Amino acid sequence: MAAHEAHAPHDAHGHHHHEEGFISKYIFSQDHKMIGKQFLMTAVFMGVVAMLLSILFRIQLAWPGEESDFLSFFLGETWAPGGVMKESMYLGLVTIHGTIMVFFLLTGGLSGTFSNLLIPLQIGARDMASGFLNMLSYWMFLISSLIMLFSLFIETGPASSGWTIYPPLSALPQAIEGSGLGMTMWLVSMTIFIASSLLGSLNYIVTIFNLRTKGMKMTRLPLTIWAFFITAILGVLSFPVLLSAALLLMMDRLAGTSFYLSDIIVGSEMLENHGGSPLLYQHLFWFLGHPEVYIVLLPALGLTSEIISTNSRKPIFGYRAMIGSILAIGFLSFIVWGHHMFITGMNPFIGSVFVFTTLLIAIPSAVKVFNYITTIWRGSNIYTPAMLFSIGLVSTFITGGVTGIILADSALDIAVHDTYFVVAHFHIVMGMSAVFGMFAGVYHWFPKMYGRMLNTRLGYAHFWVTIVGAYGVFFPMHFVGIAGAPRRYYDYTVMGEYDKPTFDMIMDLNVIITVFAIIAAFGQLIFLFNFFYSIFRGPKAVQNPWRSNTLEWTTPVSHVHGNWPGAIPEVHRWPYDYSKPGAEEDFISQIVPLAEGEEGDH
Amino acid sequence: MTKLIVLIVIILGVIAIAQLVRMYELSSKLRNRREEDIPNRDNRLNATLLLVFMLAFFASVIYLFVEYGYTGRGEAASVHGASTDWLMDLNLWIVIGVFFLTNALLFGFAFKYVRKPGVKAYWFPHDNRLELVWTVVPAIVLAVIIILGLRSWNEQTDESPDEAIRIELFSKQFDWTVRMSGDDNTLGYFDYKLTNENNPMALLTTKTIQDAIDSMEYSSTGIHALEAKLNNPHLIFIPEDHDLMVKDLARKERMVRMLYQLKARHNSALDARAMDDIVFNANDTLFLCKGQDYEFNFRSKDVIHSALMPHFRSQMNTVPGQTTRFKFIPTITTAEMRVKMNNPKFNYILMCNKICGSSHYKMKLMVVVLDKPAYKKWYAKVSKFDPKAADVCKTFRNIYAVGKPKAVVADSITVAAGTSVDTAAMATK
Questions:
Q1: Residue B75 in 3-state DSSP?
Q2: Class of the A31-258+273-554 domain?
Q3: Cβ–Cβ of A529/B70 closer than 8 Å?
Q4: Burial of A48 by CB count in 10 Å (0-12 exposed, 13-18 middle, 19+ buried)?
Q5: CA nearest A85 in B: which residue?
Q6: How far apart are CA B110 and CA B116, in angstroms?
Q7: pTM for the whole structure
Q8: Residue B192: is its pLDDT beyond 80?
Q9: Which residues of A touch B95 (CB under 8 A)?
Q10: SS3 per residue for B82-124
Q11: Rounded to whole angstroms, how far apart are CA atoms B17 and A528?
Q12: What's CA B393's distance to the chain center, in Å?
């Protein structure tokens, strides 16, 4: 879709090394760099759609029931009669917004783009282990994106039981319209998405294990690669579980089984299903769902580690501790899923085990934060837009992380579960941290992707509007939540009937949030403009614009198939030799052999 | 027309920005500046902005806390709520401290250590002591948080005492129904197959089983009626409707067999448990007594709902096919809370907090906490046996007439093919 259309004119200044046709080069490409760009384009498009959806429902939340030309323009008479959004469409928008953001932007987009681009380049490989599977992975991603998008346009509306699609609501079309065809499309789309993700992840793991260049020990890998590696393992272990959850749900919907259904009367229809448990679904879903948070976050942290180290001209502090904390987070992420289920009727004892494991994650996270801060300390910090976004990431990782401590504490979770406090928490972590990581990555590796530079001043404007706007959106949400406002509410009039002052306070905050959301959304236009403009007209990049150590900057600016025109360079040192005492330059590329008497890895 | 103008303005705006960027690029080229070379001026400007941002951010966080911090839900109106609020405060102080400290370090260092010409970055790849410090200190703080949290959690999820009043909160799209356990303080058993208009909570008694069987067999859409229609040679059906009716018939035959099993196994001594239950109408206010232990049993008829009572710091999901529980002791009457909240119209509320359908946001129940004398008076009224005052006296015995069944309402149990039967009948006319 967006991917090849946008690439087409790029052809003019591409470099043809083999006699590759247009189709094999730009569309059915098996080259990891092109596939990475395809992922990025698709994800950017999906991200814009999901952001637009959020603006639509934010308008409803701030000014409920007021006529809006904006709403009627996008939703039309069917879904916004007279410019007022319909309740069922509100839920549909919320659901698809969440789904796209979590899976299509932050899983497919973040991990897909940068794993594909950076893994072969940074470990010194000619391409992925299997270019063909890699291509399939992208095409499945595109197909699943298209199905998810089209589900917005069907008559009964998109899936509308929240991005977690808890049955029985998602299993019973009688209970909500969106659980008809919309939910079927959601499930089909996600099934294809999972296949795509698995193909990609297996490829990443195999590539990292087998195709590292000579001298590239695991302990010389840049932290980006470590992050992608653990992310891929998390994906391989957890996505199949989501697939099984989706398949069982599909069976309940189509084949009359009772995995998730028991003793239900919906409307006036008495169902025969007996013996299933909706909690089973929640266990399966969150067994993916929690590792998913780290699938989203780890790549962002990996990218940031690289960017902060490069731009502070200092080695990343505690390289091994950083690897250790990635491993610890990866491991712990599999035994914490129950903290999403404290008040679902799960046995309280199991709940207390999950409290313990969940709070443990705070330790490796704290280690990472302090290591970042120490890296910046006494650095020679250069504020490229990528660096600013990385600092933004660390700040939001702290802000979003500390509220996690409250939510992980089951006793406290009772009162704030499913309120806006939770919405604030995971949006600051995923909607800000992970997205900032992605922006940082785009700004930093844009020269590698397109051979051109992004405009720095526009990058600054983008960063400042985004951080102010996004904090302005998500920070006040804590207070909406502490006031007791549930999430996924079309409006809060019921609270007004019982407690007018609290209702007024919530509405005040809702207006503030929406205004900031609109500002932040406009800020993204700056990025989009900069991005597309620079692809075609940005100033040409040099080989190593950021004076960085890693291998990708030893490849020629123009893409060649196989990455390095000659032999693959050998690696002699770890990737973080910045400002090393005794060295002339403030960076030493990984391919430079150790000088006599020089100490090697750290 | 306005849309057209908006579109034109947007396009012109994009062109204008493009021209500005073009000018910027040309001037960079003239001055021979490359995009990746960040001038010191820009660098320092951004470093300063980071610090300014931090100060503004901290100021607005403090403002938000002062302005909106704790006003929303007011004081906790339950015993455990007060203790979790204390714990919440403690945790908040810890995390706010961490938040301010680490953000200040981050932005402070970012400001201070901006690149200065001639100053090289300090080579500092690792330090085991430092790393140990920021592993151990968080671990200790977390240990405290975990221990306090679990202590509170165990108290809250412990078995409720025998004297706790059992109340069932029954949820369905999109309302709540209250059932109280009555004088024996035992909730009667239920089975969802017994649901009908007179018995919306599906309570299990000899009589309700029999009524359900009768309804399944003899109502106007029951088994006999369906069989009669299907076997009637004078009726012609649309094939789809015919299929639906056959399916419906098969389903009802399976259901009725299960009802017969239920009947065969039923011990009529258990009827009494249900008979004294006080069954309210959907949306009828939940009345509680100050200082009384309560155990809430949650049940759902259709999809998952969640009973959030923000003022009592209480929440539990209702899950179809299983009973979930939550207990608390209310400590502040509605009247007292109105004074505390400085709002004479204030009322406690129970809201649905798990997405359950398009009217999810309207699914709520009013909760009133009375002091003991007022509660006793109210309770005496609703628990009285007086068939003539069935709108006030809500015991099951009272509203579900024993011995003399109310006419079984025909459509109480579903009729998937109900409408098609009518069209089929019309088609034959």
A1: coil
A2: mainly alpha
A3: no
A4: middle
A5: B358
A6: 12
A7: 0.91
A8: yes
A9: 402-403, 405-406
A10: HHHHHHHHHHHHHHHHHHHHHHHHHHHHHHHCECCCCCCCCCC
A11: 12
A12: 30
